[in-house]
Write a structure and sequence with these properties.
Keywords: Acyltransferase, Transferase. By secondary structure, the protein is an alpha+beta fold. It has five helices and seven strands. It has a seven-stranded mixed β-sheet with strand order 1-2-3-4-5-7-6, sandwiched between helices.
């Protein structure tokens, strides 16, 4: 299995991550006030995930694995590598339905829309109304489930 490095983003490398999203997921625009983690392999950047910070919680958003690395369990390894981030403060995710099993393996659980923080409920409804098939989820440490 290839060797990968999972690290918080060095702010000087922000333009590289911005280009990565633009190439593979144009709707997912990284912002400098987000906590961003990256995964790099021998050929460079392979993936990124962003954590939008709120006062009392965070939102895991925009997880992206380069198409050539999909289907190789890199997403599972990435979520395991960012566990310190997901455990730092309550963490939510609005996951595409087909990715629910990936997030569940990492400790996220499906929750009711009403269990989302108020700041995320409107965002969730808006995304769903625009045609996205999303499932609200919250991270629970695996030992507490």
């Amino acid at each position: 299995m290839p060797d990968f490095r999972f690290t918080p983003l060095d702010p000087l490398r922000f333009p590289i991550v911005a280009r990565f999203y633009k190439s593979h997921y144009p709707a997912g625009k990284p912002k400098k006030d987000e906590v961003i983690w990256t995964v790099e392999g021998e050929t460079g950047l392979c993936g990124a995930v962003r954590f939008k910070q709120f006062d009392a919680f965070q939102l895991l958003t925009g997880m992206l694995i380069a198409p050539s690395f999909r289907g190789q369990q890199l997403g599972d390894r990435f979520l395991e590598a960012v566990a310190s981030q997901t455990q730092a403060t309550p963490c939510y995710c609005l996951a595409y339905r087909y990715l629910t099993p990936l997030y569940e393996r990492a400790g996220f659980r499906v929750i009711e829309k009403s269990a989302l923080p108020e700041e995320l409920q409107g965002r969730y409804v808006s995304y769903c109304n625009s045609g996205k098939d999303l499932i609200p989820m919250r991270y629970f440490p695996l030992e507490s489930v």
